[in-house]
Amino acid sequence: MDRRAFLLGTLAGSVLAAPIAAAAQQVGIGSSEWPPGPKGLGPGVSMLVVNRHPHTLHVRYPAGHTVGPHRHISGEDVTVLSGTLLIGWGEVWDPTKFKAVRAGENVVVPPGVVHFSAVREETVMEVKILGPYSIEYILDADDPRPEKR
Question: Which of 24, 58, 103, 128 lies 20 to 30 Å from 18 when distance is taken between CA atoms?
Answer without folding.
Answer: 128
